[in-house]
UniProtKB/TrEMBL annotation:
Keywords, in A-Z order: Signal
Signal among keywords: yes
Organism: Reichenbachiella faecimaris
Keyword Signal appears in the UniProt entry: yes
Signal peptide extent: 1-20
Name recorded for this polypeptide: PKD domain-containing protein
CDD domains from the UniProt entry: PKD (cd00146)
Pfam families xref list: DUF4331, K319L-like_PKD
Matches recorded under Gene3D superfamilies: Immunoglobulins (2.60.40.10)
Top-level taxonomic group: Bacteria
Length: 280
């Protein structure tokens, strides 16, 4: 199969421009160097390259064969640097024939191995501070296992999150067994919500980490529904963890625990994409 491809390439070069030689001529074959065999990820653009240290007025003819044995398209099969998109996993074979003006020929083959990589999730951090603060149980393997859990299965770690909530609340004098937050959720339910470390999106409601209306707090509607750049997401989490169900009846200790004290951004956010504030 390879010999057939080379023969085809030679014929193509001959059609493009063959210079006849006298019988006494002894054409010198060009000395070639190539970009060499490579391994790339699938869907990458691959640029092939061939150079010659001898010969003049060189012409090039490339033939690219994909892993299925089919001749594939090149951007410019008669240049020294054609390219193609590696759209199939496996090994491509690129054969090039180079002919000099005196009729000398040389050929090379480049193999391109295309791999389809398998990506692994290494972290999940949809809700700021949740993973950092509440994923603090067990050993490193336990924490890493949570980070590699698909977000849809994040609540499978809720027990560990609940244990952290219980311990923190009991430490400051709250009763974790009876605790309920402003959403009316106990620690078991709150841990289930927060341990799924993704941003929920209810497109029928306004985007806000919330709550946008303290008199009508609705989960995944006006609280924990996406997040705006100006939302104080850490304060919302602290309120859920320590404020209880009545924001008008807080102890002095609770008042000191439901805010991180970080001021709002010192520059206004843009109303146009990407919505970030202008740099200093």
């Amino acid at each position: 199969m390879k010999n057939i491809r080379v023969i085809l390439a030679v014929l193509l070069v001959g059609v493009m421009g063959f210079t006849a030689c006298d019988e006494d001529d002894d054409p010198e074959s060009p000395m070639l160097s190539t970009s060499g065999d490579v391994t790339v990820d699938i869907e990458k653009t691959v640029t092939l390259e061939v150079g010659a240290s001898s010969g003049t007025n060189l012409t090039y003819a490339w033939i690219l064969t994909d892993p299925d044995g089919t001749v594939a398209d090149l951007s410019d099969a008669t240049s020294a640097t054609p390219s193609f998109v590696a759209s199939i996993a496996g090994t491509y074979s690129a054969d090039v024939v180079v002919v000099s003006s005196d009729g000398g020929t040389a050929n090379e083959t480049i193999e391109i191995t295309v791999v389809n990589p398998t990506y692994e999730q290494e972290d999940q951090m949809g809700r700021p501070a949740i993973n950092t603060v509440f994923n603090y149980f067990g050993d490193a393997d336990t924490k890493n296992a949570y980070n590699q859990t698909l977000p849809a299965n994040g609540s499978s770690n809720a027990g560990g999150f609940e244990g952290i909530l219980d311990a923190l609340q009991n430490y400051i004098g709250l009763d974790a067994d009876t605790y309920a937050n402003v959403l009316g959720l106990d620690n078991t339910t709150t841990a289930t919500v927060l341990s799924t470390d993704v941003l929920n999106c209810n497109k029928s409601a306004s985007t806000t980490y919330g709550p946008s209306d303290l008199d009508n707090i609705t989960l995944f509607s006006n609280v924990l529904n996406g997040r705006g750049l100006d939302n104080d997401v850490v304060d919302v989490t602290l309120i859920l963890a320590f404020a209880g169900d009545d924001l008008t009846n807080l102890s002095s200790l609770q008042e000191g625990l439901i805010a991180d004290g970080v001021a709002a951004n010192d520059k206004s956010f843009s109303t146009e994409f990407p919505y970030l504030a202008s740099p200093h």
